[in-house]
Input
Amino acid sequence: MTSASLSRRGFMGQSLALGCSLAAAPLVTPIALAGAPGENRLVVIILRGAMDGLDLLRPLGDKLLPELRPSLSGEGPALDNYFVLHPALDGLLPLWQAGELAFAPATSTPYRDRRSHFDGQDHLEAGTAGELPPALTRDGWLNRLLTLLPGVEGRTAFAVGRSRMLILEGEAPITQWTPGTELTLSPQSQLLLGRLFEADPLFAEPGRTALEMSRPSEGGAVPQDAEGLARFVAEQLQGETRIASFSLTGWDTHRAQARALPPALAQLQAALLGLRDGLGPIWGRTTVMAMTEFGRTVRENGTGGTDHGTGGALLLAGGAIRGGRMFGDWPGLGENALYAGRDLMPLRDIRAYAAWGLRDMFGLRASEVSGVVFPGLDMDENPRLLL
Amino acid sequence: MSFSPAKAAIRFGTGLDLRHAAPVDPAALWGSLKAEARPGFAITSWDTRREYARQRWEVRRALRDAPDDDTLRADLGRLNQTDRMASLSDLRASLARLSAAPVGFHARLTRFWANHFSVMAQGGILRSARASFVEDTIQPHVTGQFRDILHATTLHPLMLAYLDQSRSVGPFSMVGRGQGRGLNENLARELLELHTLGPNGDYTQDDVTQIARLLTGLTFDLENGFRFEPRIAEPGIIEIFGKRYGGRPMFVEHVLELLDDLAIHPDTARHLATKLVRHFVSDAPDEQLVAHMTASYLQSGGELMALYRALLEHPAAWEGGPGKIRAPMELMAASLRALDVPPDQIIDLSPRVTNRWLLMPLADMGEPHEQVPSPAGHGDLAVYWVTPQALAARTLWTMGLPLRLEDVPDPRRFVETALGGQASDGLQFAAAGAETRAEGVGLVLASPEFSRR
Output
């Protein structure tokens, strides 16, 4: 039944309608959301590309800084008599003053020495140590957290994003979404398609969610930047969602960091303020953790940038935290204090901060957290991150 | 429920259209494999990708000494752009192959094995080399012996890089003793767990370690590609599953001998059979079908054609309704062929349209071009592709496709073509009840029925 006489159906000119609008957020990659019981909210922001903790939080009190970092040691909003914020983050000063912002200035994952972004991010999101055991390389610590919580549901446990968030992957149900996915269907098509989805058990529930979430937003306002993204997350957290995760990129500042870093910091600031504004009263029950795969070299390199390092900063925000302070000790910048003679020495495993935060936030036993969420982790003393 | 030509085309091929006759019996479907073994539409070769990587490495090295050299920066930008353009071209070619194949079983199997040997370039020097990897290591051997695929994939630089083998050093090798470097077990573990014996295979951590010792020496460089490097290879006899491998001098042949043995291990046969049935037929593989395929494969000494014949000739391969879901690329290909879009027009799409109309939607549907989620590849249960995000993206793309056509068919006839006369009353009603032809055709393509295979 080949019929060469059939006329092929060609495409029309390529300039024609690409169909529906699909907005890509350039600096912002994924969001993942998960529903869990209780009223406390957790947002984990992964800063992909190795954020320079020493520039986020400048240790101006250390006299070595101007020598180590000639172009990266200017003044900024003072947090205490030692650290100042990067000037691009001046919008966060009110949070610090209100006790809604805090840092652990010298922390890292257990990942050491190879300094690969991909491996470092895998370690950060898997939450495991050393060579990743095979069973654990394919799920993330936020997903393992979900397995400990009662009443986690499919519809409310949803994830949003274009690329992958290993941190939320695993057995517990989550859903993904990229803000800005819009379907412009006629009412008739919407109705007919809805019926077709309903008729197939595999498609019924995800189909319902898809049609509902992809309804074009009123006024055509599609979240395209970090703030819009944060507001989208806030909207979900006001509903059934309790846990959300997304990532921000633009941190890999090998050259001209004084110019390259501020746009990424501005995104981070916009995300935090967007969450606070979008959450309203719920901000008081919210903890935000912004973490990165590793820090950057203590010395500025020959091109005004910094290279892959080890220790870095953990940022905490939210109305639920005991903020306005630094958690953990500070190793200093002296030659002998550095890791491998080049990097900030991490003084505590970043997973220990996360672990205690989860325990206090979700009423878990420490043994559950160190057994399931971060297997084998020595949690040590409680830093008491929360109020 | 038993064999039908439409079922053959949908379950094992890339779908139905008016131009090609669906296979009349299982033997015809099996015969299509040899006939379609050499598809047109060129994919960028691995040697070309390697050469891009080599040049990128050189430019980057020069940039370390002269970071502000604008000529070098421009060179780097041009190289990256060339790589990106080649990657978009590979995407168009892959899609054209799927949609143009008379049956498409061979193209589907190529995708199956590409997912079985899941690799990707992780940025940096090497970029977008997955399509080239598949073209080099899998495409030529889909109808050959499994060990041919196993050799080619295990020794390929992209695999050696992705699973860290090129960083693994025998502790008692010349380099290992001198520098105190050691084993990386990643490839050894995945070789057993994913590529051969399977997660339920009969092996222990000690077997993984022994295999990791034997695999040392496999590495590559950007000048010549794969290389066996005796200076990092662990010397001495290494015992694996009761057999002695290796010895001095160290040769790559010792590794190939192990791969040959793993290829015809009974656990491997069972693992491959189970995965094939789960991929093509059902989330819950029929035990008798798996047993039949396992026995046929082992009897043939590892012939893939014997494995496929055992699959197709068994009645259980034809039972049940369409329990599986077309992966995003398969959905695109099935839509394009059902609408009789000429493959040349896919090839001719501009980079911009390829990016916005193929690349980005595929990522939203969960199958980003040139990427894999893990060494285990994409999930193979029907539910894997059916998430709200993916469904929205599938709907967006399928509803938009008819709007791009010069000539939209009558949805009432199109629903017959696309579903081989098996469309439900509900779908026929929707096709006929849409407000426009384009919406009617779009609804057929967006329907769960068209997504099922």
Summary: Strands of chain B lie at 218-221, 225-228, 237-240, 243-246. The first strand of chain B starts at residue 218 and ends at 221.
